[in-house]
Design brief:
Number of helices: 10
Largest sheet: 5 strands, parallel
Strand content: 25-35%
Number of strands: 25
Structural class: alpha/beta
CATH class of one domain: Alpha Beta
Shape: globular
CATH architecture of one domain: 3-Layer(bba) Sandwich
CATH topology of one domain: FAD/NAD(P)-binding domain
Length: about 425
Amino acid sequence: MAHILIIGHGINGLTTALQLKKLIAEEDWITVVSPERYGVVKSGLPYVGLGLRPLDEANVKLQPILERFGIHHTVGNVASLHPERQIIKLENGKRLPFDYLIITDGMEPAFDHIPGLSQSRNMVHSLVGADEAMRAELAFQDFLNAPGPMTVALAPGSSDYQNAYQYVFNVDRLLRRYRLRTEVPIRFVTPEPFLGHFGVGGIGNSNRLFEGAFRARHIQWVCNAAIDRIDDRSFHILYFNDDGLQKGRQLLETRYGMLWPSKRVEPFISGVDDLINSKGLLPTNRFLQSQRYETIFATGEIVAPQKLETTPMEAPPPCFDFLRESMTSTVVGNLAEILRERYPLYEPTGNGFFMIDYGARGAAFLAVPQCPPRNIDRIIEGRFVHVAKRAMERYHIRKLRAGITEPIFERLLFRIMKMPRIKQKAA
């Protein structure tokens, strides 16, 4: 009998647990530990922050789903991890032993990396979680009554490119609808070397696509940029050349700011000797198993990437939903093999697929694999992408609420597209 412990923030832990439950023996049991009772689909938060959708359309209540499948759920924050003793301690003092541990997120926003941000939270908001999205939505309604300059920014080290681009396009469309666009100059600040870089060198002609879209919407942008500090009325921006040398600084007066901060590993992970590398990420083998502790697996942004492009500003590769699901399937398949006393066989394909909604149009990005060089490197743009993305988000929420992770037709669809989630290697 084995006890598998899953530490996850909402949707990630839920998906991992549901997949694993189908593959383990009846005597094995799973416990999911999460700091909240709800899981949030983060690609829906830009709409929540603008008041375009209620939060209920982007979240899933975890406990009823997990209990339906006989999976234990513990709500709490992890205080410390002890791999040698195979135990975790929660902040409430509770201890949970494990035979195998899966870390499905392990990252937290680093708001304190930007001087002045904590004193400017009435002006600068974020969409890293449900609570922040609700506060951003209330502040945005006040902003509409007294509009002014807006700054949308990604901090160096952030990989939330999809949400940032989606937000800036939708806020432009919403302001035009309210006939307020002339009163709101919009500036977009990013650490990427060029628009549409996404931390992976761009996909297709993403640079020309986004530069054209920004020009058509009169959105100003600053690339290779870092946020020096923030005060009550402005962003202080440093921008650099392609060699990483500072070119100058810029003051952006701001009435409403939207910021995606960098992320760091949570303290319970960083407190373990030799678990993370010098960049603060968890190195794994090709089976997503910790190189230091064989009983620990990891998925998501915490996993140290195999390929990392050097850029003037820190612009890490993203972990889009398809890649995250690929990593989840890899860990689940390998752990199921180990529980059967066999060798792990699977590794993620590293493919990338995601969509960005412009408000009335959209673009779908397909990168096989996600990091170049690629076999497939394609963008499909049109109004149908806007409709398709909305339909897929609704489908994803309903699928999770039903406790389904990967229906057969979905698996067949990606096989037809020649985009399997995982690949099998010889033992």
